[in-house]
């Protein structure tokens, strides 16, 4: 992938992210001030009743719009900071942002009152959610494991492989459209296995980044930022209370800043 082509794709993705943010705000406010948004009946069994851990639909909405804002701002930062740098790891980071964008489609469940509709559209939104949860950790793994010298020549192919794998399993894993989870996500099978998969991939990626930085005698600030980033996106994906909203926003923002800032310094030093 040439730098010019990546920059064009980054700019197009930025426009798409901003458009999704504006449309999300418009439809949410329109439904709120006209008919009023009817929050779906969600599965709240075994949820804590403590104030910081209690289920708050407003936290779900806030988390989605924070994620949309994060995607738009981060894409713009990548476009300006890595405009003249090859940086194959930024290709995978953009795929991670794309996964985050796919996750925000759960906003459609309450806005279009899809809960209980059992429609094909609701099923496809569930596929998008599942696709995002599978692709996000794989894309982050790409920024660490697949951006090394051994994989740099095959960035395009590896990116496509990660997307195809995520799409395949997102279609294969069963969904239960009759159950809406607290974060407006459609219930899906193998929940524990998928969460364990994401945690394992992020752990392997963090260890790989740590070893690479140690071998090259770099500071571990990038590793710290990466770990915070992984924690932040996980909390934001599953955000439905005040604690996960605050912690997810803090970790996602600070982790992304530390990680991208160190990656940018690294490429400035190489150039």
Tell me briefly what this model is.
The protein is mostly helical and 271 residues long. The chain is built from nine helices and two strands.
Task: Tell me the number of helical segments per DSSP (H or I, 4 or more residues long).
Answer: 9
Helix/strand-derived category reads mainly alpha
Care to count the β-strands?
A: 2
N-to-C series of helices and strands: HHHHHHEEHHH
Describe it.
This protein has 271 residues and is mostly helical. The protein is built from nine helices and two strands; from the N terminus they run H-H-H-H-H-H-E-E-H-H-H. It has helices at residues 3-33, 57-81, 88-103, 108-111, 120-144, 155-172, 191-215, 221-237, 242-270; strands at 175-180, 186-188. It has a two-stranded antiparallel ribbon. Helix 3 (88-103) packs antiparallel against helix 5 (120-144), helix 5 (120-144) packs parallel to helix 7 and helix 7 packs antiparallel against helix 8 (221-237). It is globular.
């Amino acid at each position: 992938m040439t730098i010019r082509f990546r920059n064009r794709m980054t700019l197009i993705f930025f426009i798409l992210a901003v458009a999704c943010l504006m449309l999300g705000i418009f439809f949410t406010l329109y439904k709120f001030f006209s008919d009023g948004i009817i929050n779906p009946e969600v599965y709240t069994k075994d949820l804590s009743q403590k104030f910081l851990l209690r289920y708050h639909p407003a936290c779900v909405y806030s988390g989605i719009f924070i994620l949309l804002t994060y995607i738009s701002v981060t894409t713009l930062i990548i476009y300006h900071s890595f405009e003249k740098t090859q940086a194959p790891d930024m290709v995978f980071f953009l795929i991670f942002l794309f996964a985050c964008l796919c996750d925000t489609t759960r906003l459609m469940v309450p806005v279009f009152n899809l809960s209980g509709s059992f429609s094909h559209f609701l099923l496809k939104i569930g596929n998008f959610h599942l696709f995002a949860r599978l692709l996000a950790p794989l894309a982050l793994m790409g920024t660490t494991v697949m951006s090394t010298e051994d994989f740099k020549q095959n960035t395009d192919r590896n990116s496509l492989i990660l997307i195809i794998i995520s799409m395949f399993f997102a279609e294969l894993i069963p969904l239960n459209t009759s159950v809406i989870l607290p974060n407006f996500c459609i219930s899906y099978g193998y929940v524990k296995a998928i969460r364990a998969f994401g945690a394992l991939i992020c752990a392997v990626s963090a260890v790989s980044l740590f070893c690479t930085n140690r071998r090259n005698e770099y500071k571990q600030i990038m590793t710290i930022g990466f770990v915070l980033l992984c924690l932040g996106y996980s909390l934001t994906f599953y955000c439905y209370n005040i604690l996960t909203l605050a912690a997810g926003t803090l970790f996602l923002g600070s982790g992304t800043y530390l990680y991208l800032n160190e990656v940018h310094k690294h490429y400035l030093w190489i150039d």
